[in-house]
Amino acid sequence: MAIYNRHKLVFWLQLVATWTVAVSLFGYIRHYGWTGRYGISPESLIEPWFDVSVGLILGTGYFAIELLMDRQFFERLSFLRWAAVKLVLILVLMLAFFAVAVYLYPFMNPSVTDDVTLREFLFSKLMFLVLVYISLISLLITLFQRMQRKLGPGILGNMLLGRYHHPREEERIFLFIDLRSSTSIAEQLGHVAFSRLIQDCFADVTEAVERHRAEIYQYVGDEVILCWKPAQGSRNNNCVAAFFQFVDTLAGRSDYYQATYGLQPFFKAGGHLGRTTVAEVGILKRDLAYHGDVLNTTARIQGKCNELEEQLLVSAVLADRLQLEKEYTLREYPPVELTGKQENLTVIGVQRPTPLSAG
């Protein structure tokens, strides 16, 4: 929870900083490029206290809108409907801000001698300029966030910096999460309903991904592949806790799944740690790709879940890097044969302790 709250705090600070810079830039354009007053002194727009104050207010308001739009009800809307709702909320925020600003500004800046009403300001050229400018800034923020969502947390920054323009070998934790009995479920529901089920399940994994600092590598059919750098994945057992939070989210929405699909989806997972090569691939559609034996091994470990009747299996290599004993019940299996692997591998079943029944 602390990590998730810190993530929100960082996001809020980023929005406040972005809007502070945007207000400051607008102030310089307004001061040096257009001197029409409309009751507001252009000189005050380039004062640091003004920029920071407005940036704090707009950034906080925008942050509240983002939290609201992140709710699953809005995320399930089409992009055009989602964008329309967000635009209306931003316009309401701006109008409320301008109404308060027009009323309070003469008290904060006694040098203003010309009175201006809210109506005059709303229909002024300055208001039109402000709305266009704020709309452009909001659009840029939205596009940046959508690119981050499309590529996954942390990937956009690495691609902009060219970190993986040339292949690099790094250590990663991988977690393959797969829908159990997917073939029979697809036959039961049909392809369209099955696709909606997968959409719902992968939407429900979002909170676990964000809270436990995971990177979504790929969606492959009914499987999602998460990965972490070792420091992030091992901290607070993130790579294991993320899976069980996803399980809890699905269980908490069991009424929805039963009513909509007539079943409760269950997922199994396999985790492993190893060296992998990371590189940007593609020209028309660029993406980060991971190559190496660690991916094949993780997939094979996950494939043993049904045979060993475990919901989560991890390699001994990964378990040694985590602190699982205090939170989970572990069951170590003798080295098992993995398809396509010459050497057998020790795997460990990870379970949460069953609560003692009262009385």
From TrEMBL:
<feature type="transmembrane region" description="Helical">
    <location>
        <begin position="126"/>
        <end position="144"/>
    </location>
</feature>
<feature type="transmembrane region" description="Helical">
    <location>
        <begin position="80"/>
        <end position="106"/>
    </location>
</feature>
<dbReference type="Pfam" id="PF00211">
    <property type="entry name" value="Guanylate_cyc"/>
</dbReference>
<dbReference type="InterPro" id="IPR050697">
    <property type="entry name" value="Adenylyl/Guanylyl_Cyclase_3/4"/>
</dbReference>
<dbReference type="InterPro" id="IPR001054">
    <property type="entry name" value="A/G_cyclase"/>
</dbReference>
<keyword id="KW-1133">Transmembrane helix</keyword>
<dbReference type="GO" id="GO:0004016">
    <property type="term" value="F:adenylate cyclase activity"/>
</dbReference>
<dbReference type="GO" id="GO:0009190">
    <property type="term" value="P:cyclic nucleotide biosynthetic process"/>
</dbReference>
<keyword id="KW-0456">Lyase</keyword>
<protein>
    <submittedName>
        <fullName>Adenylate cyclase</fullName>
        <ecNumber>4.6.1.1</ecNumber>
    </submittedName>
</protein>
<keyword id="KW-0472">Membrane</keyword>
<feature type="transmembrane region" description="Helical">
    <location>
        <begin position="49"/>
        <end position="68"/>
    </location>
</feature>
<dbReference type="InterPro" id="IPR029787">
    <property type="entry name" value="Nucleotide_cyclase"/>
</dbReference>
<feature type="transmembrane region" description="Helical">
    <location>
        <begin position="9"/>
        <end position="29"/>
    </location>
</feature>
<dbReference type="GO" id="GO:0035556">
    <property type="term" value="P:intracellular signal transduction"/>
</dbReference>
<keyword id="KW-0812">Transmembrane</keyword>
<feature type="domain" description="Guanylate cyclase">
    <location>
        <begin position="173"/>
        <end position="302"/>
    </location>
</feature>
